[in-house]
Write a structure and sequence with these properties.
Structural class: mainly alpha
Number of strands: 0
Mean pLDDT: 76
Order of helices and strands: HHHHHHHHHHH
Number of helices: 11
Largest sheet: none
């Protein structure tokens, strides 16, 4: 495999990783075996997310499932929800939250950060969404910083290398610094400064 990466198959055999995490298993691309779904499912979830005829709780669950799934198309669906003109701000907030993902180290972290950065730095987006994007970037930044600074055994546990974590942390910091140079309300600017302080950048 790549230099600096542990032998994942050997680790699985030695530690019984899949057995211990039955039903909520990390695959080696960072997604969860317990949530593996087809691309047709992703398409259905994306339609649910953007369906104004559905109750908000249903649309929120769709966003969370997309964030959990974490495939390229799932991230793209969440990104699209943030670009639709006149979209419900609550639904956009669901999408932003889902990009942060609640537990562990999110799959496709750099793709997620790129989408959040775009939302944060979009002058046409509502102030509430931009502030929430800053918050979620801060949450992701705090997680990747812990991994970037952690001893090697933590990288084995999270299945993420220090280099990927460092690159993601740099992307988070860049997004927050960019907003300070772009048109933004005081609320957005202040939150970006606070988050930069929180992640130590």
């Amino acid at each position: 495999g790549n230099s600096g990466h542990f032998d994942s198959e050997q680790f699985v055999r030695r530690r019984g990783f899949r057995k211990r995490h039955a039903g909520f298993t990390h695959n080696f691309d960072g997604t969860f075996g317990g949530h593996m779904q087809s691309e047709e499912t992703v398409e259905a979830l994306a339609e649910k997310l953007m369906d104004p005829g559905l109750p908000l709780w249903s649309r929120q669950r769709a966003a969370e499932s997309l964030g959990d799934f974490g495939s390229e198309s799932a991230i793209a669906a969440l990104a699209e929800a943030l670009t639709i003109q006149g979209a419900d701000s609550k639904v956009q907030s669901f999408a932003v939250n889902a990009l942060g993902e609640v537990g562990g180290f999110p799959s496709r972290v750099e793709e997620r950060v790129a989408v959040l950065a775009k939302a944060l730095n979009n002058p046409e987006a509502g102030s509430e969404i931009r502030v929430r994007a800053a918050d979620v970037l801060g949450e992701v930044g705090a997680r990747v910083r812990r991994v970037a600074e952690a001893p090697a055994e933590v990288h084995i546990r999270t299945l993420v290398g220090a280099e990927e974590a460092k690159a993601a942390l740099k992307a988070v910091a860049t997004a927050l610094k960019d907003v300070l140079e772009s048109p933004a309300t005081d609320e957005i600017w202040v939150r970006a400064v606070e988050v930069l302080g929180e992640i130590g950048s």
